[in-house]
Amino acid sequence: MNPRPEGTIGTVKQPRPQPTRLRLWLILLLGIPLAIPALGQDGEATHLGAWLHTISDLRGPVALDYTEGGALWVVEADGNRLSLFGPSGKPSRQLESSGPWLNPRGVAVDTRLYVSDPAYRRVLGIAVEAWHEADTVVQGPSGLCEPGALDAKDGRLVIADPLGGRVVLFQGSKRLELGVGLLGEPTGVCLDDEGGTWVSDAARARVEHFDPDGNHVGGFGDYGAFRGLLAAPSGIAWWNHRVFVADRDNHRISVHTEGGDLLYTVGLHALRPREGKGLLHYPSAIAVSADGTRLAVAEPLDGRVQVFSRAMGAEPTVDPLRRVTPQASAHYGPAIRASGQWMLLVEPETHSVLLHDTRRDEAPIELTSFGRRGSALGRWIQPEGIWLDLEERTAWVSDPTAGILDQVLLRIDPQAPLNQHLGAAAWVRRVNLRALKRDLGGVSVFHDPRPTAICRREGKTYVIDRANRCVLVIDETQTCVKVLGAGVLLKPIDLCFDPKGILWISDAWQGRILGFDPNSGESRGSRGAGALQSPDGICCDQEGRIFVSDRAANRVLRFSSLGAVDLSIGKEGLGPEGLLGPRGLSIGKDGNISVVDHGNHRCMVFTTEGEFVRAFGSKLHVRPAMQPKIYDEWGNKR
Amino acid sequence: MRRTLLCWLCVVLGLLWVFSDKKPETPVAPVPVTALEDPWPLDLLRHLGPLPPLPADPTNSVADNPAAAHYGQWLFFDKRLSGDGEISCATCHDPEHGFADTRPIALGKALGERHAPTVIGAAYQRWLGWGGRADSLWMQALGPMENEVEMAGDRQEIAHLVRSDPLLRQAHEEVYGEVPKDVDTLFAQLGKAIAAYERLLIQKDSPFDLWVRSILDLPGGDPTALNEEQQRGLRIFLGPGRCTLCHLGPTLSDLEFHNNQLPTHPDGPRDDAGRYQGARLVQESPFNAAGPYSDAPEGEAAERVRALVQSSESYGEFRTPTLRNLARRAPYGHQGQFPDLGSVLRFYNTLEDQDLRSHHQEQLLQPLRLDNAALGALEAFLLALEGRDLPGHLVQAPVAPIRD
Amino acid sequence: MKASTWTWILCLALGACGGEETQPVAADPPTAESTDPKPADEPLPLKADANGGGFRLELIPSPHPIPLNRDFSLRFRLLDNEGKPLAEPLKHMALDADMPEHGHGMKIAPVLEEKDGWIHASPLLFHMPGLWEIYVDRTQGHVTERAQLSFKVY
What we know:
CATH architecture of chain C: Sandwich
Helix content of chain B: 25-40%
Number of strands of chain B: 2
CATH superfamily of chain C: Macroglobulin (MG2) domain
CATH topology of the largest domain in chain B: Cytochrome Bc1 Complex, Chain D, domain 2
Number of domains of chain C: 1
Oligomer: heterotrimer
Structural class of chain B: mainly alpha
CATH class of the largest domain in chain B: Mainly Alpha
CATH topology of chain C: Immunoglobulin-like
Distance between the termini of chain C: 31 Å
Number of domains of chain B: 2
Distance between the termini of chain B: 80 Å
Strand content of chain C: 35-45%
Radius of gyration of chain B: 23 Å
Strand order of the largest sheet of chain B: 1-2
Order of helices and strands of chain B: HHHHHHHHHHEHHEHH
Number of helices of chain B: 14
Largest interface: A-C, 23 and 25 residues
CATH superfamily of the largest domain in chain B: Cytochrome c-like domain
Largest sheet of chain B: 2 strands, antiparallel
Largest sheet of chain C: 5 strands, antiparallel
CATH class of chain C: Mainly Beta
Number of helices of chain C: 1
Structural class of chain C: mainly beta
Shape of chain C: globular
């Protein structure tokens, strides 16, 4: 329990309007039952939880911080810009993409503005009035792998390095590394008033606490959906001995004492497309204003920041009317791979991989799913890259947080009648790339490998290493024999071979795809510069045409075999052309292209000429695509 | 004004919703039940009955000591073990109601969070308590004594009572020899005596036991002990009811923990960690089978509690309750959510009001969709699991802690 | 002869000697092989090739057949592809069990001990009826390989 005195957050009351006769009845009917449980919560009569306003139409807001005066800086990663909003939510300033950074990720306000620029593995210090003259305050490669969230207070600067699995604290000339060997993927970080550092570790579903000297002094959290448990806690803020956690995959903010006791939660899970006004959808970053009267929550997938103020009353609970909502499972992505009639998909929330059969000319049938959360063989912290080979009846799966690559046998006869095959997966082996001691094919790398997207050809496995920004080539003896693209790639996302054997890699931060000779490692040119904003999934058809999903632009571009863009598929929305943050791509046996429509929780299937064929996945999001004349683009019935 | 109207509209809709008594839709497509003349699955029936002899408890050296059982019976009814002298074990585990509680949520010193389960047949359990916070009957008996919402007692004061009350002291010495100086040792000994009494609370020879003996060609069987409807209910139990997935074993429980997303009782907490908390408590307690107060710290139970896995996957899981002797111990469920057997069966039949906490949560249960006749038969079978009544001397406080 | 044929032969053999409660179930793969002749009082080990073929597994549950919802133990050893026992350090081994159709495993983690050339695992508990799989994982350097056996417990 927290021994410290309660703060003003627990004592300030909202002014109450003069009650009329009707309102008196309302207060009696509604107010008393609501107030009683609130009063019972650790003596707190009020909390930060009343939705105030939403700042919409943002381009991938991934980080935010309040100024002393209550203005809010927001990092829009997909817009490559920083925006400042006044206390009422009105925009007041924008530092555009022509700034000194390549791709801003974190922001912190102290005596000046700090911005993390992970593409260059550095953090910039910016005087706002002369922001073009930012100075680099921290830079790799010997330091940070990919600096993300930041916080700054009283001359201290703390940097989360999620891919490096650590947090770096700067205080004057002193530099401390926190949580090495403990943290899995520290995505959020904040400082308290006493010099301590708080870290949210998305991979381990934990919050960790470090003292001013960088010693680990405690923490709390465990994985799960129930109250008090966390699922991918991504952002964190501290105010007056309260710890606020953006519990991303539980779609809520949880507020804890410093000892970890849960006080209350903010926000309910938005189930219908674009629901808001206090309903949350993958809240990823949070900030609390200096006076404790505002809580800002960034939701990158929905392009918005919701702001909450103090409220009196009970914390939200599940609205019984929402139970009419059909089961909205089937969150897909990022990866999809097809082989013959089979199709493999990652299901992130269940930490599993789904095998589908596409032999019917309808939505694919799920044959089996395999894997669940954990660290032993047969479990993953978060599966990300996949590959499928129907001939070998084998799937390959990568887990970047664990640094592993699994090979799984699928004990299903492809000719058998369509049926569920529970428990059909048998693990063959696991390759632990971390155990290679950063010696990858004779190339010494600085960071522990984080394997993501997978592609296989002629017995070799090509896997992207996000931490070292390269492609590892692994032979049949599970030895890393070569490294491709090192020093050239910035943020490699996906890879595929074209019919000529050129390996194409999408690079989100360079905004283009790059070709390599897989044997010599030499460059074979690039495509898409100027046309692609944030290239993500990539695949190639038999004619050598390359399809690339552009996550930030909500579309898929087709490049002719000569390299020109000759088709654009999809636009932002929910209808039959609608895409929101498209990720993985794959061309199936029927020649159609399946796109993981990640933000819409569904898969869209198009012909290679861009005609809509079908959608499958979450019912709420599939329906608008299948019945465009009945539902508008946001899924509302006309 | 518009806002006011909206508020009233909400209130009216809310009231309509609250008071609407929407019945579940009529179950569709009743699942075919095997014909009465079909052969019985003997392998499966062997797992269910007849009730076997009580397993030994090597962690309790007085588990089957009659003097200890008598002393324990006294303690079970002795209200002086509670903080205010007004609550005994029998307050919530009422012999009149199958050693369970008629209240949905137990009320001791204060309102608790769970229903008080029956003590009858508890000696067959592997883990005790809805969340399995104990791994032996004697360890379980210790918890409520000091729990502030149950008996709110204190082991120091209880030890003082045993040392200062001549009859209690004499009874204790008769079982254990000298009263130990160490309070924790004394406390554990009290639990072991209560456990010895609770091991006698077994209702044997239910109609099902007699019937299954005849089916399995065991002595003492009676082929007429189950009537036609009860036999039909048993076939549903073994087949389309899918009950034996969890209710398998001589107590008709797998003795383990599951989260069936039961609805919450209005007086109970919506969030109860269940086994997630229980597994931690039992592993950390010095009174577990591997601890210093166990009489078999290297035995099988000790090995099991040491090997117990702590995982948040067990959040919200509760122990599969025994289905024996259901008649007198309504309500049912870990919060007493179900006032009668019919409502339990209706829940599993429709899954109406199932408390799904996350749309990512796996749907483990499927509605049974049995028709009313099948549900009636199932209930008739469940009531045929009622054993013979306990002898009168076991269901009341003895006249003194020491035997005549 | 096809691997699956051998598997069925093994299952029939084990079913004949294993009583009624539990029967090993064909796994496709691993390839289970017919057992060598042993003295009558020596329990016959169940055998399986690693899923990737890198080693062989011999495993003897006790009691056998594995009882439903009762503690049991087992011993196992690894052999190379010529049938020679592998002297594998205990720290490179892991044993677990799962109900693949239910998506969960055991609620206890058995302790492994090396004795007489076998690795002994205890306690194990299959608390629900149905198909269970026992996994033995062997780690060499940066690669872990798995061998597994299936059991129908009821």
